[in-house]
């Protein structure tokens, strides 16, 4: 009886601790949702996947996927704090779940930028020169990370998927953003739109390839694919607005490939462990949160720099380090 009470208390502490990281993200866009989830987390002691856990992970995925703060890092830490994937039996399913709900974020980009995808389809049939150019850019930018990820997937999971490596990546990424901004390498705000000018289509194949090479750094959990793509684009002379939009579209390609591969490899295990409803809940919440996150980022960067994300990464790294040191989070 005493053992059960101790285990229940430990799970409760982990559930409450999980809110720290999640609320830091949610507070930017949905403070009311963050407050409601705090109450629910504190009152829940189950360790299996539940509807509220699925929704929480979906929100974290949707909010963090396209912001330069690393969705993988947030999901790995949140899953650990929620007691998911803590045994060998469900570790694979939990990892697959985290990737499966990315379909929600993928659908968000497809819906918001459907005109770009229409042009790319037309480009395949020779009816849109701009669409064909954009499609080539995305293929070129996607190739480096696709090849490296395929060759080193198991090694990356074995060596880099730990809480301390995520903390390191968060902290270094935050310092990098602040350092580049101080050095004048990052614009303080987006540039005004010019009628008849499409800055995205001004990206060259060479620039796209360099962006793709920089994106490979994001194979380290906690780095952020979005951060790598945006910084890579800015450092080769791409405008802020084009860099951000290109990161969204490149994310669509990258996430589609990663999610599809993961579902083929472990989809059966996913549904065996979590059923169908919870992954769908996570996907829906990821979609809604991603739509809000993308729209907010585009608007925010029209008047501000990336500095807020640099400070956020440093703060979340400190919070996570504190949870690791106190034992609330597994190293």
From TrEMBL:
Key words, A-Z: Cell membrane, Hydrolase, Membrane, Transmembrane, Transmembrane helix
GO cellular component, one term: plasma membrane
Alphabetized InterPro entries for the sequence: UppP
Membrane topology: Multi-pass membrane protein
This protein's record includes keyword Hydrolase: yes
EC number: 3.6.1.27
HAMAP family to which the protein is assigned, alphabetical: Undec_diphosphatase
Protein name: Undecaprenyl-diphosphatase
Organism: freshwater metagenome
């Amino acid at each position: 009886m005493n053992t059960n009470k101790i285990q229940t208390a430990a799970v409760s502490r982990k559930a409450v601790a999980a809110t720290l990281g999640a609320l830091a993200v949610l507070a930017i866009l949905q403070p009311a949702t963050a407050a409601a989830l705090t109450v629910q987390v504190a009152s829940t002691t189950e360790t299996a996947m539940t509807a509220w856990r699925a929704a929480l992970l979906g929100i974290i995925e949707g909010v963090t996927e396209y912001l330069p703060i690393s969705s993988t890092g947030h999901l790995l830490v949140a899953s650990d704090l929620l007691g998911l994937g803590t045994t060998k039996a469900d570790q694979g399913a939990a990892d697959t779940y985290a990737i499966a709900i990315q379909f929600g974020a993928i659908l968000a980009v497809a819906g918001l930028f459907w005109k770009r995808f229409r042009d790319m389809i037309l480009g395949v049939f020779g009816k849109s020169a701009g669409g064909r150019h954009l499609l080539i850019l995305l293929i070129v930018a996607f190739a480096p990370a696709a090849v490296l990820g395929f060759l080193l997937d198991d090694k990356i999971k074995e060596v880099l998927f730990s809480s301390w490596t995520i903390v390191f990546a968060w902290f270094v990424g935050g310092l990098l953003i602040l350092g580049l901004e101080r050095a004048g390498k990052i614009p303080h705000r987006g540039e005004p739109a010019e009628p008849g000018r499409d800055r995205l289509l001004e990206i060259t194949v060479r620039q796209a390839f360099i962006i793709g090479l920089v994106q490979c750094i994001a194979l380290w959990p906690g780095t952020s694919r979005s951060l790598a793509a945006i910084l890579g684009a800015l450092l080769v002379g791409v405008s802020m607005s084009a860099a951000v939009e290109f990161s969204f579209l490149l994310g669509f390609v990258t996430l589609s490939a990663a999610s599809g591969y993961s579902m083929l490899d472990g989809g059966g295990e996913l549904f065996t462990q979590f059923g169908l409803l919870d992954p769908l809940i996570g996907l829906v919440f990821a979609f809604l949160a991603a739509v809000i996150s993308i729209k907010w980022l585009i608007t925010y960067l029209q008047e501000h720099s990336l500095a807020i994300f640099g400070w956020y990464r440093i703060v979340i790294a400190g919070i996570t380090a504190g949870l690791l040191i106190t034992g609330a989070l597994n190293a």
